[in-house]
């Protein structure tokens, strides 16, 4: 279910008490305006500076004197500009704890952190690992676009470079068929803000003929000390929805780091992806490059391709998402700095749909429908929601952390109920976000979580170490939240 601004004009025909409360006349002034504000969602966090000249290795420093020059790195073309200098170091959440207990401190210190890379950066790492990616040119200004438009081979895909997901759905991916469209779309995208994040640059990528969109990623499962090849034959922009509605299309193949990726893993993955036996070799090659060439080489904790395009006999990564473990070894960090030419650990910006209500139980959910259902459930057990806070489809750690901090700082909130339902969503990431928020906030409040998704075990462990109640059933969690608030 989605809510749009126009919904605010008429009350829903169906729904439950809390859902209808959003439209109730008594609450009209603040709530209606808040809902109408939904087009301009709540923003929190620090501004991240745009990537800049990142792709120039030091030995090509001559390029800096001519910022408009196209340079080739790892077989891909980029406009070079000034390099960003900066330290890779960032304060860990544990450094910021002032008054939290020792147990909490330990759990935060152990909670994994990671740095996110832009799509073009991920593809650069792919390319360095020998994974063929569509040709790409990075555009930072409309002038870059004008220069590139004339020599481009059409159609060209223009893609917003932001660290949040869901660009396609937000209009941040457009296909240009001629130079006019190229310049027009590039300008449009450069001016966009996607889920609170200002577009840093536009990537012009070679168009891929896509027959089928697959999902393929490698993640770390800390609870079993193994890696998981997460994959789906229904990749693309709706992967979170697929995970929720048809989890039978999400597959997990675990492998042991001491064994590595073997042919039988690739055979299983290829079969699940609906690929013929002739693809086994290609899948094996791709998986090994993702694992050895990206994951191990750069200390990544996530290497994700969505979609992985089936195009004739080829498998082509159309998108790339890589996150780097914040505890990456020094030589790795140096290598990354050299390849990317920027500090990927700067502050991030997050935005979510937030409506303040007059109750006392803070509500966080992913997706408008789930968030409303969560409010209803709290109401059913005699509690009053303090807000409607929807962090959107996939729950990422930074967003969860900012949302939790926001509610922790609200004096009306007596307890917080976080309800995250996903399949691709990583519970360990969500859990770390919540624990980090608690560590960084002065206000300590009871938090109740219902969490379903990938890496549930590890998520549960992170929460338990921090003394946070964990549930898999929504009604039990709702009751616990009402009890924890101690008001009703
Ligand atoms: P995201 O929405 O942020 O994940 O951005 P993606 O890079 O994954 O692109 C979103 C969608 O745009 C993809 O799932 C494709 O359907 C479409 N798309 C992107 N690039 C291409 C391309 O080169 N060719 C075709 N046919 N579709 C593309
Ligand atoms: Mn994608």
Describe the structure.
There is one protein chain. By secondary structure, the protein is of the alpha+beta class. It is built from 15 helices and 22 strands. Strands 4, 11, 12, 13, 14, 15 and 16 form a 7-stranded antiparallel β-sheet that branches. A 4-stranded antiparallel β-sheet has the order 5-10-6-7, covered by helices on one side. A 4-stranded parallel β-sheet has the order 18-20-21-22, sandwiched between helices. The chain is globular. The chain starts with 16 loop residues before the first helix and ends with a helix. The protein binds guanosine-5'-diphosphate and manganese (II) ion. The site of manganese (II) ion has 2 residues, from loops.
Note the topology:
Layout: H1 17-21, H2 28-36, E1 42-45, E2 70-73, E3 76-79, H3 102-110, E4 114-116, H4 119-128, E5 136-139, H5 142-149, E6 156-161, E7 173-176, H6 179-190, E8 193-194, E9 197-198, E10 201-206, E11 212-221, E12 226-232, H7 239-245, E13 250-255, H8 263-272, H9 280-296, E14 300-311, E15 314-317, E16 321-325, H10 330-340, E17 349-356, E18 361-365, H11 368-380, E19 387-390, H12 397-408, E20 415-426, H13 427-440, E21 447-454, H14 456-465, E22 469-471, H15 474-485
Parallel strand pairs: 18-20, 20-21, 21-22
Antiparallel strand pairs: 1-17, 2-3, 4-16, 5-10, 6-7, 6-10, 8-9, 11-12, 11-14, 12-13, 14-15, 14-16, 17-19
Helix pairs in contact: 3-13, 5-6, 8-9, 12-13, 13-14
The protein binds guanosine-5'-diphosphate and manganese (II) ion.
Residues 306, 319 line the site of manganese (II) ion.
């Amino acid at each position: 279910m989605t809510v749009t601004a126009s919904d605010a004009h008429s009350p829903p025909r169906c729904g439950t008490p809390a859902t209808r409360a959003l439209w109730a006349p008594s609450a009209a002034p603040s709530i209606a305006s808040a809902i109408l504000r939904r087009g301009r969602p709540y923003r929190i966090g620090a501004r991240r500076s745009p990537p800049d000249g990142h792709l120039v290795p030091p030995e090509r420093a001559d390029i800096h004197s001519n910022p408009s020059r196209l340079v080739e790195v790892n077989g891909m073309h980029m406009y070079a500009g000034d390099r960003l200098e900066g330290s890779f170091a960032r304060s860990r959440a544990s450094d910021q704890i002032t008054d939290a207990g020792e147990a909490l401190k330990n759990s935060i210190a152990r909670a994994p952190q990671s740095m996110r890379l832009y799509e073009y950066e991920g593809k650069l790492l792919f390319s360095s690992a020998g994974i063929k990616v569509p040709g790409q040119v990075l555009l930072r200004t409309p002038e870059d676009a004008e220069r590139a438009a004339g020599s481009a081979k059409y159609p060209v895909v223009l893609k917003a470079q932001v660290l949040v997901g869901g660009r396609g759905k937000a209009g941040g991916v457009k296909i240009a068929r001629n130079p006019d469209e190229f310049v027009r779309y590039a300008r449009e995208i450069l001016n966009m803000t996607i889920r609170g994040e200002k577009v840093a640059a536009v990537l012009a990528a070679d168009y891929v003929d896509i027959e089928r969109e697959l999902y393929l990623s490698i993640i770390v499962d800390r609870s079993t000390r193994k890696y998981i090849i997460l994959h789906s034959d229904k990749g693309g922009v709706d992967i979170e929805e697929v995970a929720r509605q048809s989890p039978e299309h999400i597959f997990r193949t675990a492998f042991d780091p001491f064994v590595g990726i073997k042919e039988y893993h690739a055979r299983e993955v290829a079969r699940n992806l609906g690929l013929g036996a002739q693809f086994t070799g290609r899948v094996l090659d791709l998986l090994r490059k993702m694992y050895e060439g990206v994951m191990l080489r750069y200390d990544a904790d996530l290497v994700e391709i969505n979609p992985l395009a089936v195009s004739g006999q080829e498998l082509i990564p159309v998108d790339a998402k890589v996150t780097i473990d914040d505890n990456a070894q020094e030589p790795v960090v140096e290598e990354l700095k050299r390849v990317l030419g920027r500090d990927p650990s700067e502050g991030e910006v997050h935005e979510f749909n937030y409506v303040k209500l007059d109750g006392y139980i803070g509500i966080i959910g992913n997706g408008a429908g789930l968030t409303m259902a969560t409010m209803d459930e709290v109401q059913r057990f005699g509690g009053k929601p303090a807000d409607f806070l929807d962090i959107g489809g996939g729950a990422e750690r930074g967003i969860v952390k900012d949302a939790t901090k926001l509610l922790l700082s609200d004096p009306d909130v007596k307890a917080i109920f976080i309800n995250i339902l996903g399949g691709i969503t990583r519970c360990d990431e969500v859990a770390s976000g919540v624990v980090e928020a608690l560590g960084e906030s002065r206000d300590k409040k009871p938090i109740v979580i219902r969490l379903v998704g990938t890496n549930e075990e590890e998520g549960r462990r992170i929460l338990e170490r921090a003394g946070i109640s964990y549930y898999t059933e929504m009604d039990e969690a709702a009751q616990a939240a009402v009890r924890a608030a101690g008001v009703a």
